[in-house]
Amino acid sequence: MVINVLPSLLAPAAPAISPLYDQHGRPLEYLRLAVTDRCNLRCFYCMPEEGIKYMPKHELLSYEEMLRLTGLLAGLGVRKVRLTGGEPFVRRDLVPFMERLAELPGIDDISLTTNGVLTAPHVPALARLGVKAVNLSLDTLDRERFFQITRRDELPKVLETFHALLDAGIQVKINAVVMDGQNIDALVPLASLSRDLPVDVRFIEEMPFNGGSHEAGPASLPWNHVRIRQHLEDHFGALLPVSMAAGATASEYRVAGHQGTVGIIAAYSRTFCGTCNRLRLTAEGGIKTCLYDQGVLDTRALLRGGKSDEEIVAALSAAFRHRAANGFEAERQRPLHQLSFESMATIGG
Ligand code: SAM
Ligand code: SF4
User: Fold this and answer.
1) Would the pTM of this model clear 0.85, i.e. be above it?
2) 151 CB less than 6 Å from ligand 2?
Protein backbone atom coordinates (compact mmCIF):
# COMPACT_ATOMS: atom_id res chain seq x y z
CA MET A 1 0.00 0.00 0.00
CA VAL A 2 1.28 3.47 -0.86
CA ILE A 3 1.27 5.97 1.97
CA ASN A 4 -0.24 9.23 0.76
CA VAL A 5 1.50 12.47 1.49
CA LEU A 6 -1.23 14.57 3.02
CA PRO A 7 -1.44 18.36 3.06
CA SER A 8 -0.64 19.31 6.64
CA LEU A 9 -2.44 21.89 8.72
CA LEU A 10 0.36 21.96 11.23
CA ALA A 11 1.80 25.40 11.86
CA PRO A 12 4.59 26.47 9.49
CA ALA A 13 8.00 25.50 10.78
CA ALA A 14 9.14 27.97 13.43
CA PRO A 15 12.82 28.85 13.79
CA ALA A 16 14.50 25.88 15.49
CA ILE A 17 14.67 26.21 19.24
CA SER A 18 17.63 24.61 20.91
CA PRO A 19 16.09 22.20 23.38
CA LEU A 20 16.55 22.11 27.10
CA TYR A 21 18.90 19.31 28.25
CA ASP A 22 18.66 17.36 31.48
CA GLN A 23 21.70 16.82 33.71
CA HIS A 24 22.38 13.55 31.89
CA GLY A 25 22.63 15.23 28.48
CA ARG A 26 19.22 14.17 27.14
CA PRO A 27 17.16 16.75 25.22
CA LEU A 28 13.53 17.67 25.90
CA GLU A 29 11.67 17.14 22.62
CA TYR A 30 8.55 15.11 23.20
CA LEU A 31 5.44 15.58 25.34
CA ARG A 32 3.00 12.79 26.12
CA LEU A 33 -0.22 14.48 27.07
CA ALA A 34 -2.96 12.48 28.84
CA VAL A 35 -6.14 14.37 28.01
CA THR A 36 -8.33 12.28 30.32
CA ASP A 37 -8.15 9.52 32.92
CA ARG A 38 -11.41 8.00 31.68
CA CYS A 39 -11.70 4.99 29.43
CA ASN A 40 -14.32 2.92 27.63
CA LEU A 41 -12.35 -0.34 28.01
CA ARG A 42 -11.13 -2.08 31.16
CA CYS A 43 -7.91 -3.79 30.06
CA PHE A 44 -7.05 -5.94 33.04
CA TYR A 45 -3.35 -4.93 33.02
CA CYS A 46 -4.36 -1.28 33.23
CA MET A 47 -7.57 -0.87 35.22
CA PRO A 48 -9.69 -2.84 37.66
CA GLU A 49 -13.09 -3.93 36.39
CA GLU A 50 -15.04 -2.11 39.10
CA GLY A 51 -14.52 0.62 41.65
CA ILE A 52 -12.45 3.01 39.54
CA LYS A 53 -12.28 6.44 41.09
CA TYR A 54 -12.13 8.89 38.23
CA MET A 55 -11.05 12.39 39.04
CA PRO A 56 -13.85 14.98 39.23
CA LYS A 57 -13.95 16.89 35.94
CA HIS A 58 -12.87 20.19 37.48
CA GLU A 59 -9.68 18.50 38.67
CA LEU A 60 -8.67 17.63 35.11
CA LEU A 61 -6.78 20.26 33.17
CA SER A 62 -8.96 22.18 30.76
CA TYR A 63 -7.97 22.30 27.09
CA GLU A 64 -7.02 25.96 27.62
CA GLU A 65 -4.63 24.96 30.38
CA MET A 66 -3.12 22.19 28.25
CA LEU A 67 -2.61 24.62 25.38
CA ARG A 68 -0.87 27.12 27.61
CA LEU A 69 1.47 24.48 29.03
CA THR A 70 2.21 22.95 25.65
CA GLY A 71 3.01 26.40 24.25
CA LEU A 72 5.45 27.00 27.10
CA LEU A 73 7.02 23.58 26.60
CA ALA A 74 7.40 24.29 22.88
CA GLY A 75 9.52 27.25 23.94
CA LEU A 76 11.76 24.79 25.81
CA GLY A 77 12.22 22.55 22.79
CA VAL A 78 9.19 20.26 22.67
CA ARG A 79 8.13 19.76 19.05
CA LYS A 80 6.31 16.47 19.21
CA VAL A 81 3.08 15.89 21.16
CA ARG A 82 1.31 12.58 21.60
CA LEU A 83 -2.23 12.59 22.97
CA THR A 84 -3.09 9.69 25.20
CA GLY A 85 -5.15 8.95 28.28
CA GLY A 86 -7.32 7.08 29.41
CA GLU A 87 -8.87 6.95 26.01
CA PRO A 88 -8.36 10.30 24.26
CA PHE A 89 -11.57 10.07 22.21
CA VAL A 90 -13.65 9.73 25.38
CA ARG A 91 -12.97 13.41 26.03
CA ARG A 92 -15.35 15.67 24.16
CA ASP A 93 -14.09 18.00 21.41
CA LEU A 94 -10.73 16.27 21.04
CA VAL A 95 -10.40 17.11 17.35
CA PRO A 96 -10.99 20.87 17.77
CA PHE A 97 -8.42 20.76 20.56
CA MET A 98 -5.95 19.06 18.22
CA GLU A 99 -6.58 21.75 15.63
CA ARG A 100 -5.57 24.41 18.16
CA LEU A 101 -2.57 22.37 19.26
CA ALA A 102 -1.43 22.19 15.65
CA GLU A 103 -1.41 25.99 15.50
CA LEU A 104 1.14 26.32 18.31
CA PRO A 105 4.46 27.58 16.93
CA GLY A 106 7.16 24.94 17.21
CA ILE A 107 4.86 21.90 17.41
CA ASP A 108 5.42 20.02 14.18
CA ASP A 109 4.34 16.50 15.05
CA ILE A 110 1.03 15.51 16.65
CA SER A 111 0.14 11.89 17.13
CA LEU A 112 -2.05 9.85 19.39
CA THR A 113 -2.40 6.53 21.14
CA THR A 114 -5.90 5.10 21.08
CA ASN A 115 -7.76 1.88 21.76
CA GLY A 116 -9.60 2.45 18.47
CA VAL A 117 -13.15 1.94 19.74
CA LEU A 118 -14.39 5.47 18.99
CA THR A 119 -11.70 6.48 16.51
CA ALA A 120 -12.88 5.44 13.04
CA PRO A 121 -15.30 8.36 12.45
CA HIS A 122 -12.50 10.81 13.26
CA VAL A 123 -9.93 9.38 10.85
CA PRO A 124 -10.69 11.85 8.01
CA ALA A 125 -10.19 14.75 10.45
CA LEU A 126 -6.90 13.26 11.64
CA ALA A 127 -5.72 12.98 8.05
CA ARG A 128 -6.73 16.60 7.37
CA LEU A 129 -4.76 17.68 10.42
CA GLY A 130 -1.64 16.04 9.07
CA VAL A 131 -1.40 13.39 11.78
CA LYS A 132 1.32 11.12 10.46
CA ALA A 133 1.04 8.12 12.75
CA VAL A 134 -1.43 6.61 15.18
CA ASN A 135 -0.60 4.01 17.81
CA LEU A 136 -3.45 1.54 18.01
CA SER A 137 -3.56 -0.71 21.07
CA LEU A 138 -4.53 -4.23 20.09
CA ASP A 139 -3.49 -7.30 22.07
CA THR A 140 -5.20 -10.04 20.06
CA LEU A 141 -7.13 -10.62 16.83
CA ASP A 142 -9.48 -13.07 18.52
CA ARG A 143 -12.83 -11.58 19.56
CA GLU A 144 -13.38 -13.81 22.58
CA ARG A 145 -9.84 -13.19 23.86
CA PHE A 146 -10.21 -9.47 23.24
CA PHE A 147 -13.28 -9.52 25.46
CA GLN A 148 -11.40 -11.38 28.21
CA ILE A 149 -8.54 -8.88 28.14
CA THR A 150 -10.51 -5.64 27.79
CA ARG A 151 -13.80 -6.77 29.39
CA ARG A 152 -15.66 -5.24 26.46
CA ASP A 153 -16.78 -6.78 23.14
CA GLU A 154 -15.34 -4.08 20.88
CA LEU A 155 -12.87 -5.82 18.55
CA PRO A 156 -14.94 -5.12 15.39
CA LYS A 157 -14.78 -1.35 16.02
CA VAL A 158 -11.04 -1.49 16.64
CA LEU A 159 -10.51 -3.34 13.36
CA GLU A 160 -12.69 -0.78 11.58
CA THR A 161 -10.36 1.93 12.88
CA PHE A 162 -7.32 -0.07 11.79
CA HIS A 163 -8.55 -0.27 8.19
CA ALA A 164 -9.77 3.33 8.14
CA LEU A 165 -6.31 4.53 9.20
CA LEU A 166 -4.58 2.44 6.54
CA ASP A 167 -7.02 3.65 3.87
CA ALA A 168 -6.33 7.26 4.90
CA GLY A 169 -2.59 6.74 4.52
CA ILE A 170 -1.89 7.27 8.22
CA GLN A 171 0.92 5.11 9.52
CA VAL A 172 -0.37 2.54 12.02
CA LYS A 173 1.69 1.25 14.89
CA ILE A 174 -0.01 -1.58 16.72
CA ASN A 175 0.84 -1.79 20.41
CA ALA A 176 0.32 -5.20 22.01
CA VAL A 177 1.08 -5.89 25.65
CA VAL A 178 2.60 -9.35 26.05
CA MET A 179 0.83 -11.19 28.87
CA ASP A 180 1.86 -14.57 30.13
CA GLY A 181 -1.00 -17.05 29.79
CA GLN A 182 -3.23 -14.53 28.01
CA ASN A 183 -2.15 -13.64 24.50
CA ILE A 184 1.10 -15.47 23.71
CA ASP A 185 -0.68 -17.32 20.91
CA ALA A 186 -1.58 -13.91 19.44
CA LEU A 187 2.02 -12.76 18.94
CA VAL A 188 2.63 -14.50 15.63
CA PRO A 189 -0.78 -13.58 14.10
CA LEU A 190 -0.27 -9.95 15.14
CA ALA A 191 3.30 -9.82 13.79
CA SER A 192 2.04 -11.45 10.58
CA LEU A 193 -0.05 -8.34 9.86
CA SER A 194 3.24 -6.70 8.89
CA ARG A 195 3.73 -9.17 6.06
CA ASP A 196 1.15 -7.70 3.67
CA LEU A 197 0.53 -4.32 5.27
CA PRO A 198 2.93 -1.41 5.96
CA VAL A 199 2.30 -1.55 9.70
CA ASP A 200 4.67 -1.59 12.64
CA VAL A 201 3.60 -4.19 15.19
CA ARG A 202 5.20 -3.55 18.57
CA PHE A 203 5.20 -5.86 21.55
CA ILE A 204 5.36 -4.25 24.98
CA GLU A 205 6.62 -5.91 28.14
CA GLU A 206 3.81 -5.94 30.68
CA MET A 207 4.40 -3.50 33.53
CA PRO A 208 2.84 -3.71 37.02
CA PHE A 209 0.86 -0.51 36.46
CA ASN A 210 -2.59 -1.76 37.33
CA GLY A 211 -2.59 -0.77 40.97
CA GLY A 212 -0.51 -3.81 41.93
CA SER A 213 3.14 -3.99 42.95
CA HIS A 214 6.01 -6.03 41.58
CA GLU A 215 8.57 -6.01 44.34
CA ALA A 216 10.61 -8.62 42.49
CA GLY A 217 11.33 -6.31 39.53
CA PRO A 218 12.03 -7.19 35.89
CA ALA A 219 13.75 -10.47 36.77
CA SER A 220 10.31 -11.83 37.63
CA LEU A 221 8.78 -10.94 34.26
CA PRO A 222 7.88 -14.15 32.41
CA TRP A 223 7.93 -12.51 28.96
CA ASN A 224 10.76 -10.02 28.76
CA HIS A 225 12.13 -8.51 25.55
CA VAL A 226 14.66 -11.33 25.10
CA ARG A 227 12.02 -14.05 25.27
CA ILE A 228 9.60 -12.13 23.05
CA ARG A 229 12.29 -11.80 20.38
CA GLN A 230 13.18 -15.47 20.65
CA HIS A 231 9.52 -16.45 20.32
CA LEU A 232 9.17 -14.38 17.14
CA GLU A 233 12.46 -15.67 15.69
CA ASP A 234 11.37 -19.26 16.33
CA HIS A 235 8.55 -18.60 13.89
CA PHE A 236 9.84 -15.99 11.44
CA GLY A 237 13.59 -16.64 11.43
CA ALA A 238 16.13 -13.92 12.19
CA LEU A 239 14.77 -10.48 13.06
CA LEU A 240 17.01 -7.93 11.38
CA PRO A 241 17.54 -4.76 13.44
CA VAL A 242 16.65 -1.49 11.72
CA SER A 243 18.06 1.82 12.90
CA MET A 244 15.98 3.54 15.53
CA ALA A 245 14.92 7.18 15.59
CA ALA A 246 16.57 9.24 18.33
CA GLY A 247 14.71 8.77 21.60
CA ALA A 248 12.76 5.73 20.37
CA THR A 249 11.67 3.20 22.96
CA ALA A 250 11.06 0.32 20.54
CA SER A 251 13.80 -1.85 19.11
CA GLU A 252 12.63 -2.25 15.53
CA TYR A 253 13.19 -5.26 13.29
CA ARG A 254 12.52 -6.27 9.74
CA VAL A 255 11.27 -9.75 8.94
CA ALA A 256 12.41 -11.07 5.56
CA GLY A 257 9.61 -10.62 3.03
CA HIS A 258 7.46 -8.33 5.23
CA GLN A 259 6.34 -4.85 4.15
CA GLY A 260 6.11 -3.55 7.70
CA THR A 261 8.26 -4.01 10.77
CA VAL A 262 8.02 -5.55 14.21
CA GLY A 263 9.20 -3.84 17.36
CA ILE A 264 9.81 -4.76 20.97
CA ILE A 265 9.45 -2.26 23.79
CA ALA A 266 11.38 -3.25 26.91
CA ALA A 267 9.12 -1.13 29.07
CA TYR A 268 9.79 -3.01 32.29
CA SER A 269 13.43 -3.97 31.63
CA ARG A 270 14.03 -0.30 30.79
CA THR A 271 16.78 -0.65 28.22
CA PHE A 272 16.12 2.71 26.52
CA CYS A 273 16.41 5.28 29.34
CA GLY A 274 19.77 6.60 28.10
CA THR A 275 18.15 8.41 25.16
CA CYS A 276 14.77 9.30 26.68
CA ASN A 277 13.65 12.71 25.41
CA ARG A 278 10.14 12.85 26.84
CA LEU A 279 8.02 14.43 29.49
CA ARG A 280 4.58 13.23 30.59
CA LEU A 281 1.67 15.43 31.61
CA THR A 282 -1.11 13.60 33.43
CA ALA A 283 -4.74 14.53 33.04
CA GLU A 284 -4.76 16.41 36.34
CA GLY A 285 -1.61 18.33 35.48
CA GLY A 286 1.14 16.27 37.05
CA ILE A 287 4.52 16.33 35.31
CA LYS A 288 6.42 13.07 35.19
CA THR A 289 9.97 13.21 33.91
CA CYS A 290 10.07 9.40 33.95
CA LEU A 291 7.32 6.81 33.54
CA TYR A 292 8.44 5.35 36.87
CA ASP A 293 8.52 8.51 38.97
CA GLN A 294 5.53 9.44 41.09
CA GLY A 295 5.08 12.94 39.65
CA VAL A 296 7.57 15.72 40.17
CA LEU A 297 5.57 18.90 39.55
CA ASP A 298 1.94 19.97 39.99
CA THR A 299 1.29 22.29 37.06
CA ARG A 300 -2.40 22.63 37.91
CA ALA A 301 -1.47 24.34 41.16
CA LEU A 302 0.80 26.71 39.22
CA LEU A 303 -1.76 27.40 36.50
CA ARG A 304 -4.64 27.94 38.90
CA GLY A 305 -2.48 29.77 41.40
CA GLY A 306 -1.99 32.63 38.98
CA LYS A 307 1.69 32.03 38.21
CA SER A 308 3.20 33.90 35.28
CA ASP A 309 4.54 32.18 32.16
CA GLU A 310 8.08 32.91 33.35
CA GLU A 311 7.43 31.25 36.71
CA ILE A 312 5.90 28.17 35.10
CA VAL A 313 8.75 27.88 32.60
CA ALA A 314 11.25 28.09 35.46
CA ALA A 315 9.46 25.28 37.33
CA LEU A 316 9.23 23.08 34.21
CA SER A 317 12.91 23.66 33.41
CA ALA A 318 14.00 22.81 36.95
CA ALA A 319 11.92 19.61 36.90
CA PHE A 320 13.36 18.46 33.58
CA ARG A 321 16.94 19.34 34.47
CA HIS A 322 16.82 17.17 37.58
CA ARG A 323 15.53 13.95 36.07
CA ALA A 324 16.42 10.54 37.42
CA ALA A 325 19.09 8.86 35.31
CA ASN A 326 16.79 5.96 34.48
CA GLY A 327 13.58 4.19 35.44
CA PHE A 328 15.22 2.20 38.21
CA GLU A 329 16.49 5.32 39.94
CA ALA A 330 13.10 7.00 39.49
CA GLU A 331 11.38 3.98 41.03
CA ARG A 332 13.72 3.99 44.03
CA GLN A 333 12.95 7.66 44.62
CA ARG A 334 9.20 7.09 44.88
CA PRO A 335 7.89 7.46 48.41
CA LEU A 336 5.08 5.14 47.37
CA HIS A 337 7.45 2.57 45.94
CA GLN A 338 6.62 0.02 48.61
CA LEU A 339 2.90 0.24 47.96
CA SER A 340 1.87 0.21 44.33
CA PHE A 341 2.10 1.86 40.94
CA GLU A 342 -0.82 3.96 39.76
CA SER A 343 -2.92 2.84 36.77
CA MET A 344 -1.39 3.46 33.38
CA ALA A 345 -4.65 5.19 32.46
CA THR A 346 -3.64 8.15 34.60
CA ILE A 347 -0.13 8.23 33.13
CA GLY A 348 -0.93 7.69 29.47
CA GLY A 349 1.50 4.87 28.75
N1 SAM B 1 -6.43 4.10 25.93
C2 SAM B 1 -5.40 4.30 24.99
C3 SAM B 1 -4.85 2.99 24.50
O4 SAM B 1 -5.09 1.96 25.14
O5 SAM B 1 -4.19 3.01 23.48
C6 SAM B 1 -4.27 5.19 25.47
C7 SAM B 1 -3.82 5.03 26.90
S8 SAM B 1 -3.06 3.47 27.29
C9 SAM B 1 -2.72 3.70 29.00
C10 SAM B 1 -1.48 3.66 26.50
C11 SAM B 1 -0.72 2.39 26.30
O12 SAM B 1 -0.34 1.88 27.57
C13 SAM B 1 -1.48 1.28 25.60
O14 SAM B 1 -0.79 0.86 24.44
C15 SAM B 1 -1.53 0.17 26.61
O16 SAM B 1 -1.47 -1.09 26.02
C17 SAM B 1 -0.31 0.47 27.46
N18 SAM B 1 -0.39 -0.11 28.80
C19 SAM B 1 -1.35 0.08 29.72
N20 SAM B 1 -1.09 -0.64 30.84
C21 SAM B 1 0.06 -1.30 30.60
C22 SAM B 1 0.85 -2.22 31.36
N23 SAM B 1 0.49 -2.59 32.58
N24 SAM B 1 1.98 -2.70 30.81
C25 SAM B 1 2.35 -2.33 29.55
N26 SAM B 1 1.65 -1.47 28.79
C27 SAM B 1 0.52 -0.97 29.30
FE1 SF4 C 1 -8.23 2.00 28.56
FE2 SF4 C 1 -5.95 2.11 27.23
FE3 SF4 C 1 -6.00 1.39 29.82
FE4 SF4 C 1 -7.02 -0.25 28.01
S5 SF4 C 1 -4.87 0.41 28.14
S6 SF4 C 1 -7.99 0.33 29.96
S7 SF4 C 1 -7.84 1.12 26.53
S8 SF4 C 1 -6.50 3.37 29.03
Assistant:
1) yes
2) no
